[in-house]
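Try this one yourself first.
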């Protein structure tokens, strides 16, 4: 298998990445048990497969996910496009300290991430969440200083509104927006995506498998210890889960006809949105196991026809998913 590349951003801010990336968060926290050795093995196998766009953040763990990624890419730095994030501030014991976009914090967070990753630069550095108490121009201005210092190559935002994206891009060119996007989550199509097309910004969808729902492997609320079992993720609870599983059943039926898994079909749909939306799209499905990584990577070979896309639209109409994507949406810029 030869995984193609895709271009995020435009002009001098353009960044070529693998068409499918790898979200590394679950290797350290949130989705049940973790195994550091298996996480390292998964990242190394990803690089072998051409899945070279790696995504982490300082708050995952906290801090230990960056260290894990750093160990996995040791000796292979030039083979990967490395992205991390700052702004969801946590203490070493995991306590959440809030969203921080202050310029002095931007600088110190970047230095700490570079040290944990064991690298001298980041290919893409995101503001993880928009700080409503700090003008975006100040935050992005500090991020731009990191580019000038050679510590960062490209800038990104995560979960930013169209207005914030426009203001940020006027301060310094933004290469990519990372936001949740899948068959189950399509909020960005109305206002955010057209703004990105206008400004030449690429899209990095996280949770392109609906936090695992679209794989078909989840049939009930996850066990205690998995963050999806909590009220923070309403789509996995009660009646909402029942409604959403019926939608997954419809995706599963189409996948069987296509000769692929439901997850592969869902990822192929996200990949196909590059042509639909008219901007660079490189999803970052997360996994902590080699076998699921290999399954996800094979989705790049699933070609969807216009009829396939229409059938998926009918199976999962926009807005059909039950429940908000987060129980608390206050940190999402709107």
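Now uncover the answer:
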């Amino acid at each position: 298998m030869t995984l193609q590349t895709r271009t995020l951003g435009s002009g001098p801010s353009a960044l070529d990445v693998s068409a499918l990336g790898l979200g590394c968060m679950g290797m350290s926290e949130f989705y049940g048990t973790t195994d550091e050795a298996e996480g390292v093995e998964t990242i190394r196998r990803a690089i072998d497969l051409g899945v070279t766009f790696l995504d982490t953040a300082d708050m995952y763990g906290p801090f230990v996910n960056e260290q894990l990624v750093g160990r996995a890419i040791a000796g292979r730095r030039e083979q990967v496009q490395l992205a991390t994030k700052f702004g969801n501030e946590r203490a070493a014991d995991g306590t959440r300290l809030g969203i921080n976009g202050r310029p002095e914090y931007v600088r110190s967070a970047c230095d700490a991430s570079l040290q944990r990753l064991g690298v001298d630069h980041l290919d893409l550095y995101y503001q993880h969440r928009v700080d409503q108490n700090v003008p975006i121009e100040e935050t992005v201005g500090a991020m731009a200083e990191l580019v000038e210092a050679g510590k960062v190559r490209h800038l990104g935002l995560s979960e930013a509104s169209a207005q914030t994206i426009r203001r940020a891009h006027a301060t310094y060119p933004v290469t990519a927006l990372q936001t949740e996007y899948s068959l189950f989550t399509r909020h960005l199509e109305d206002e955010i995506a057209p703004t990105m097309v206008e400004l030449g910004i690429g899209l990095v969808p996280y949770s392109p498998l609906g936090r695992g729902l679209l794989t078909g492997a989840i049939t009930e609320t996850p066990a205690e210890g998995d963050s999806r079992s909590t009220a923070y993720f309403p789509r996995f609870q009660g009646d909402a889960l029942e409604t959403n599983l019926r939608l997954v059943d419809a995706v599963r039926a189409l996948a069987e006809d296509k000769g692929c898994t439901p997850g592969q079909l869902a990822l192929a749909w996200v990949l196909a949105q590059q042509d639909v939306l008219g901007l660079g799209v490189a999803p970052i499905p997360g996994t902590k196991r080699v076998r699921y990584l290999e399954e996800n990577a094979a989705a790049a070979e699933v070609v969807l026809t216009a009829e396939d896309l229409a059938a998926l639209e009918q199976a999962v109409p926009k807005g059909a998913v039950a429940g908000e994507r987060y129980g608390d949406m206050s940190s999402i810029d709107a």
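Discussion: The longest helix spans residues 238-258. The chain has ten helices and eleven strands.
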